[in-house]
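Duplicate of #3305? Posting structure anyway:
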């Protein structure tokens, strides 16, 4: 465990600030009240908090890898890969939230946002005939996309297992739709009218969406076709998906198996605890959700096993 450095002093010697080494009054701790020392103290505290969080994340990952190893191995076997090291595999977050019809107030809020960004686009860029500026949040996206090969199907295993943890942020962000998103659509098809765009975006709303998530977050993931989405929705990859992409790069063409696992699974050590969704993508790109695979019991000190 990390501890602040301990300073030894002789009896009678004044306590010195451990930042600036000037004497401090005896009852005010080991850091003086000069603003620079107090700032350094706050920075130290913040970095300790983030170090502890990193450690908790690493511990969670370690336990999660161990707990899902046998189900991933079984998933691999079921698509004809006898050993786990013969196939790209990984973890993903897992959200298990109910679907519901979009409440009227949320639909109205989304519609108001949609109309605002569409009107902003028409107000600023009526008759779009030249390419819009690249989006500020990802200026290289369009260029990168033009040169990148299509993503392997196996990579989707992580998002199918996860069911869209990152899309939860699309609730308050209104599907990340902004004026630039609309201007880009109008540049691609200048004949689109204001009403066309409103109708089009509304037509993609799913029958039911995930409670508390983006309006387009349907039972099978995003219902908004990729070309109509905001850039961030096409370019964002969480760390789990990036890790799977690296695994696929090392074992191209093998397919993938992924265990979507809820963060809180560690609080329930019982076998069959409902925090798991395993997905396989076979080498010929067949996607299967393996609902019959259940989470094994969480045993402390479960030994790591090689396959
Ligand atoms: S990018 Fe990550 S968080 Fe988002 S849906 Fe895919 S696996 Fe889940
Ligand atoms: S538009 Fe689609 S990809 Fe973007 S946040 Fe909403 S559900 Fe997720
Ligand atoms: Zn000081």
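Output from current build:
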């Amino acid at each position: 465990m990390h501890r602040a450095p301990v300073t030894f002093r002789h009896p009678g010697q004044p306590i010195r600030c451990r930042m600036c080494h000037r004497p401090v009054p005896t009852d005010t701790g080991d850091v003086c009240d000069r603003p620079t020392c107090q700032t350094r103290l706050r920075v130290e505290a913040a970095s300790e908090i983030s170090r502890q969080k990193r450690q908790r994340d690493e511990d969670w990952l370690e336990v999660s890898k161990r707990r899902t190893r046998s189900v991933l191995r079984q998933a691999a076997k079921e698509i004809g890969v006898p050993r786990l090291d013969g196939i790209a595999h990984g973890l993903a977050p897992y959200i298990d939230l109910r679907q519901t019809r979009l409440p009227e107030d949320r639909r109205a809020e989304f519609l108001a946002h949609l109309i605002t960004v569409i009107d902003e686009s028409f107000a600023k860029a009526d008759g779009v005939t030249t390419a819009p500026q690249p989006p500020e949040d990802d200026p290289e996206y369009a260029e990168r996309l033009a040169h990148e090969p299509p993503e392997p199907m196996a990579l989707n295993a992580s998002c199918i297992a996860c069911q869209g943890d990152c899309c939860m942020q699309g609730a308050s962000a209104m599907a990340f739709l902004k004026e630039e998103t609309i201007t880009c659509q109008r540049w691609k098809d200048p004949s689109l009218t204001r009403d066309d765009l409103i109708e089009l975006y509304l037509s993609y709303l799913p029958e039911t969406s995930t409670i508390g998530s983006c309006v387009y977050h349907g039972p099978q993931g995003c219902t908004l076709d990729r070309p109509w989405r905001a850039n961030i929705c096409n370019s964002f990859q969480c760390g789990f998906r990036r890790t799977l992409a690296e695994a696929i790069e090392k074992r191209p063409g093998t397919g993938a198996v992924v265990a979507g696992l809820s963060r809180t699974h560690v609080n329930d050590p019982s076998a069959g605890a409902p925090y798991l969704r395993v997905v396989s993508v076979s080498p010929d790109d067949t996607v299967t959700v393996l609902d019959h695979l259940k989470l094994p019991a969480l045993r402390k000190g479960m030994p790591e096993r090689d396959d």
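Confirmed duplicate; merging threads. The first strand starts at residue 88 and ends at 93. Strands lie at 88-93, 99-100, 209-210, 217-218, 221-222, 256-261, 276-281, 287-289.
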